[in-house]
Prior knowledge:
The strands form 4 sheets. The protein has an 8-stranded mixed sheet with strand order 6-5-14-15-16-13-17-20. It has helices at 12-23, 36-41, 50-58, 63-68, 88-92, 102-116, 236-246, 298-319, 323-326, 328-350, 358-373, 375-386, and strands spanning 5-8, 28-31, 47-49, 70-72, 74-79, 82-87, 97-99, 120-121, 124-130, 138-143, 146-151, 154-157, 175-190, 199-203, 209-215, 218-226, 260-274, 277-278, 281-283, 289-290. 36% of the residues lie in helices and 29% in strands. It contains 12 helices and 20 strands. The chain is of the alpha+beta class. The model has no long low-confidence stretch (mean pLDDT 97). Helix 1 runs parallel beside helix 6 (102-116) and helix 11 crosses helix 12. Bound molecules: 8-demethyl-8-dimethylamino-flavin-adenine-dinucleotide and P-hydroxybenzoic acid. P-hydroxybenzoic acid binds at residues 45-47, 199, 212, 220, 293-294, 296.
Amino acid sequence: MRTTVGIIGAGPAGLLLARLLHKAGIDSVVLESRDRGYVEQRQRAGILEQGTADVLRAAGAGERLDREGLRHDGIELRYDRRRHRVDFPALTGGRSVTVYAQTEVCKDLIALQLKEGGPLLFEAEALAVEGAATDHPRVRFRHDGREDVLDCAYVVGCDGFWGIARTAIPAELTRVFERTYPFGWLGILADVPPSHDELVYARHDRGFALLSMRSPSVSRLYLQVPEGTDAEAWSDDEIWAELERRFETDDDWTLRRGPITQKSVTPMRSYVHEPMRHGRLFLAGDAAHIVPPTGAKGLNLAVGDVVTFARALVHQRETGSAELLDAYSRTCLRRVWQAERFSYDMTTLLHRAPGATPFEERLQLARLERIASSRAAETDLAEGYTGFPFG
Length: 391
Ligand code: RFL
Ligand code: PHB
């Protein structure tokens, strides 16, 4: 098998890249180790930056997003039983975010790819990238019980944090920057209308909590839990009772309960792999970097990477210059590190670190007070949340 761009992984990064390349008249093949149902049901991100929504629209994947996505003009910060709303458009010159689940982004892109695009092979597991530093990189993969080779002009590893693409970059050329956090998020989906019309990020002495949503009738909520927690160790009643405590306010706000349809625990980590390119192998999305979910940045970063790659390849085709491809890693990493910083700040602002001293807790509250009382501090948060420009 032969193609121009071999794409490993059909998460948001790989699927959007295939679509952008198709739009530009460049052929690709996508290899995905899981089956279609798994990829379409995997619960993850929920927030699209304005730039991400605009890219999806321009790629022809905006129809259902515009119909079913919920535009959000702010978030609420909750601490000390008080509520503070951050108004995005007022602080950023009109920017907002959209609540539209990653599952739905993937479903829309898969449908488009199967209808109009190049091959998208499910249950096709990439085993290794070979010849990354040559003009003829290859992906060895297994599909239908047989091993095969995909010959490419370029390979893009969009295979997530647990993928194999990264391992083709020699260790002596690689630097990894990493931090793990001693807590995780217990996430639930519940068949109950969201108790607030915007997301609520709560800092509480018992730990962080987040109220989000998937639709006007489905809530998505998260609780900070110790690392290594088993989701099944929490009964539904215990989860609702803990959420109620962490969202408590001095006014008459109440949390609506409903049947929990799914629960799982996500570990939290910050991770950056440098460089994001070796020869003709490029890394995009979670394959190259991870952020803790507090800043809602992971999916949006993945989109930035593939937009940068697609632009660079189109530029190379139109002008013969590899200048943008050569700058790929540098261009992406500038935005990646801003998102790393923002996600780290949001995480340390809102979570209860085990062993935190009373001094550190007071500082956390002072940081929240500062955001609530200074337009400059609040603008910094609003700019970060609504998104940094694509390189
Ligand atoms: P993905 O989505 O992990 O996709 C990688 C794909 O590669 C496949 N794969 C392979 N295929 C072939 N051969 C191999 N050897 C392969 N190895 C792996 C996998 O099966 C998979 O289909 O990476 P991608 O495309 O880079 O997308 C990244 C995003 O999924 C991720 O950053 C976000 O979900 C992070 N995230 C959030 N991001 C946001 O922008 N906003 C949010 O609100 C947000 N909330 C979240 C999140 C992530 C969470 N979890 C579970 C980690 C909330 C949570 C709870
Ligand atoms: C979600 O809805 O899944 C979500 C929203 C905001 C975050 C993280 C996750 O910061």
